[in-house]
Every structure is written in C-alpha cells, then in structure tokens.
Amino acid sequence: MNFLYCILFVFFNIFGFSENYFCDKEFFLDIDNLWSFFEGKNIFEEEEEKMLSRKELDLKFCWNINHMYSSLEKWYLDLERLKKDDYYLNINRYKNKLKKSENYLFKTLKGYFKSIRSLEKLFTYAHLFLDEDLGNDEAKKAYNIIMDHISDFDEKTSWIKPEILQIDKKRFVKYVKSPLLKKYKFYLLKLLRMKPYTLSFKEEKLLASVLKTFKTPYKVFSSFNDADIIFGKIQDKEGNFYELTHGKYINFLRSRDRKLRKSAFETLHRKFLDFENTLCELIQGHIRNNVFLCKIKGFKSCLEASLYPHKIDVAVYNNLIKEVKSNISVLHKFVKMKKKLLKLKKIYPFDLYAPIIEYSKKRINIDEAKKKVMQSVSFLGDEYKKVLKDGLNSGWVDFYETKRKRSGAYSSGCYDSMPYILMNFHGGINDLLTLAHEAGHSMHSYFSNKKQSYHNSSYPIFLAEIASTFNEQLMFDFLIRKAKIKEEKIFILNSKIDALHATFFRQTLFAEFELKIHQMVEKGIPLTPSVLKELYKSLYKEYYGEELVLDENISIEWARIPHFYYNFYVYQYATGISAAIFMFNLAKNNNKYCEKYLKFLQSGGSDYPLEILRRANVDLKDPVIIKELIKYFDQQINELLAIIKK
Q1: When comparing pLDDT for 527 and 43, which is higher?
Q2: pLDDT tens-digit profile of 151-160?
Q3: Which residues are catalytic?
Q4: What domains can be seen in the chain, in order of their start residue?
Q5: What angle do CA 85, 90, 92 make, to 5 degrees?
Q6: CB burial readout 99-122, b (16+ within 10 A) else e
Q7: Residue 480 buriedness (CB in 10 A; 0-12 / 13-18 / 19+)
C-alpha cells in the first residue's frame, strides 16, 4: 500500500469509519499496477519529455482545491476556528453520563461527527496540497499539523464507544428506537454488533495507545521498500542499460524485449532474497500483532476479526478461494495461450504480462479522453452524464505530471469537497482507462455524499472497487465496439484479459497465501524464510500449472508485496471485480437494471456491504458470482483466439 493510502487507512481506523478515499492498485509501486498497458512504443520515451512545473500549466488541467479553501491562510483560519469550537473543546462534557439520557448521547454523537467532519475537510486539503508538490515545505507542515490533531482527537474520544456499549441492552434498544437518535441508528447498531468484542474503557484506552507501535512492521517494511532498497541497472537485448525501480518494473515486464523482462524480474527478486530473514521477521511480527488482537478481543480467528465489523461472512472469503481452485484450469489455459502467442518454448512468470502484439495507437489529448469517457457511460442516464461532464470540466481532475507531484492515480475527497482525481496523463490507452476507473470512484463518492447523511456516506473498501471496475468495463466495451482494425481489437482484448488475470486470479492467490500464514501463526507454527518460500512457490505452481517454469525468484515474491501488511485486504479486489462484472452484464442485458446500479452508488455506507449488494441483485455469499467471473474470463480468451484466427 502506498504512503497516502496508509495515512488514510489510519485516519479512518482512528475514527472507526469506513474508508472514503481510494488509492487504487495502480498507485502501488508493484506488479499490481494493472492499468498501464504497453502500447508498442518505447516505454521509456516519457523520460525524455519536458516535464512542466505547476506554474506553467493551464488551470483547466488542475484540480480546484481552492473550492475548499481559497488559500493556505484560510485553511489555518479554519483550523483555529475548529480549535475554538465548543463541541471540539468539550467533547468529554458528557463522559460517564451517556446511560443517563438519550439527549446526552445525541449531543455527544452530534459533536463527535461534527468535529470529525471538520478534521476530514482540513485533512483532505492538506494531503491534496502536498501531493501537488511533495517537496513543498508549507504543505508538509500543514499535513503534519493536521495529522497531530487527528491523533490527539483519537485519544480524547477513545472513551465514547466503550461507554456506549456499557449501556444496558434494554436502554440501548430504547435509544436505537428513539426519534432523537434516528439518524444515528445504523451507527449504533454497528456498535452493538461489536459489543461482544469490545473491552472495558480502560482496556480500550490502553489498547489505543499501544496500537501505534503495532504499525512498526509495516513502517519498517515501507521505509525499506520505498527508500532503502536499490536494485541497480538492468540490460536489454541491444546492450542498453536502465535503472530498475519499483515504478519502472511493471513497464519492463510489459516490454517485447524478453531479455529486459528477465533481467528486471531476476534483479528485483534477487535483491529481496538478500534480505529474506529480515523481511520474514517483519511479516511474522505483523501477523503476531493480528493474532494478539484477535485473542484479546475474543475472535475465533484473524480472518473473522477482519471481516466481522462489516458483517462479511468468512464464507465469502473461503468460497472465493474454493471456486477459483475448482476452476483453475481456466488460468492454466491463459498461461498456455500466452506461451503459444508469444511463441515461447518455455514460459516464465516474467512472460505473463508481455504484450502478444505490437500495436501503436496515436496518442489522445485530454479533451478526447474526456469525450470517450462520457461516451462510454452514456447509458447510465442524464444525471450521471451531466454530473460527470461538469466534474471533468470544473476542477475534479489534476491531469498532468509535474515536477515533484505524487505519482500514480487515485480518487480522493471528503463530504465537503469535490471528489478529486489525481493522475499523470501522457495520452495513452492506459490514461484513458485510468480516467474511466477513477471517475467510477468519484461518481460513487458523489452520489453517496449527495444521498446519505455524513455519518452514513462513507462506503467500505469492500464496495470501493466495484464502481471503478464497472466503469472500466464500460470503457473496454466502448473501445472494442469502436475498434476499426483487427490489431486494435486484439490489443484491447489482450489488455482486458491481463487486467482480469491480475485483479482476480493473482489477488486470490495472495488471499490464500495470507490466510495460510495467519493460520500457521495462530497454531503456533513459526514462520521462516524457507517455510514462506516453499508455501508461496507451491501456491504459484497450483494456480498457474505445470506449464509455467518456476525458480527461487518467484518463491521470494511474497517479501515485496505490501498488501500482506493490510490485514486481509487483497481478497476485496477479487470480490469487487466479480461483483462489477456481474453488474456490468446485468446492465448490458437490461436497461432497467441501471436504476438499481445507481441506487447502489447512492447507498454509501448506510447498510452492511453484503446487504447493499444484495439489493443490487448481487449475492457474494453465492458462489455463482465467482463462477460467472471465471466464465467471463474464459469467454474473453475464446473471443481473443477467435479474432486472431480470422
């Protein structure tokens, strides 16, 4: 997980909220950068382009964070206003009184959410301002200041949830039914659900202070992975040398030059092999922290502890793995197809992302990209189109790469801001897909914020990737329909298949590995480098089949994946894309389904995620959703092969 999302993840864990910002997998400096497709050009030519400074850009290509605050001075004034706010200053005034009166609980929750909302707006401005220029000292200062205030607020309010849960059941039920507390009903019901796993006030307060140290394994890994590790140079078949970095790695793997792919893959993984003992201890320390929290809270397993707050049945997780493994021959078919189309005698992991065709397409400009995105979402209705069109033209998006701007792409924002999009536009199909993807996130946020109250607007990560992937499928469908030549259709379908492979099958492999290493630690089995390498390699062999040649390099891949520090996060990519494809097919075959899809976008976090999906005709407890995704993947492979044969 990238640095920005880690901070956001911490922010919402502090407040017990679901995440409302989304840094997508393409923002991870990792193989899972799925949306940057090689286009047959020199993949390093962007380095030769003149990078503009922010001051040189036309404002129409920049996001408008001044919509929140017209200047940093205004931001500081709002921070001072918050520090003097009566609710913020006296958040503890009803401490030890919540069980005496529903009015005390109402005023406490009102002040609590009012303060969080203000902090969220201040935080959003600070992190967007910093991402414009990571070397801006003023932005760094503002960012650190607001993070300190967030941490301080967490400590001041750590008593609220435990005290609410100390209210006897009869009175609690009365509070939930109270007209005064009606708008907080779902929030209270979620707390009540957690009552069996909530400790006493003193214990929760102590735990809150200790949890900061539990982040140490990830922080150490992040520092090592993002700053300390240096891979050196690699060589292509022409004898040219290139500096290998996390950011460039995925582009090297998508090169037509096999020597370059192999050099990148082996150089990167051998470096991680040099530090296998340290990296093993870090991941083991992280899992031991999870096991400790699981035990003191009273959960049966770390998996249950992770899924229970959002009322996600462990069957959802287990069914995903079960169905993928039951139909794993489809992934084996993918590997064989790649081997055949790339004309290889042996296929290795570094070949899986190589393009099967050299296809160069004229670059598009931003206006063309926006037009295509609008055309792709046309059947979602007039309101959707109007809102998105206005947003793309009025400051939602920060398009161009500039000096010291944060890399990658994401959708971010808060209840009192636009749903902002950061990207680094170069004019390729990858940028078109990224814009469609992030626009899906932003429209999800827009409708959630519009239709839901503040405390019910934030949707969980479990739902987050659905809207973005849905829009991406709309774009793929649009591009294939508009493709005029055979080579273009092959290129687009190949890109789509590669994305499905990496988002669904690869993330499921990750999910099974993560589950198994947690189960080992839960049973008291120590993790060693050899144990982890053997397990990971055996899973890779099972998932990808005998056709794929494996060596020691793939066995250490677990050591470089930041996802394994996020506590059962990756499976949500696989379930998310499964739900998105299922909804996409429903909408494609039934125009009336679009109404249900839009209601899904409007639901925010007003109910548990499985219930929200069920109302959209998606039951992720039913294995058929996963089966349909696998079937869809197989259909795309067959369609690609049919076009090639023509």
Answers
A1: 527
A2: 899 888 988 9
A3: 438
A4: 71-214 (1.20.140.70)
A5: 150
A6: beebebbbbbbebbbbbbebbbbb
A7: middle
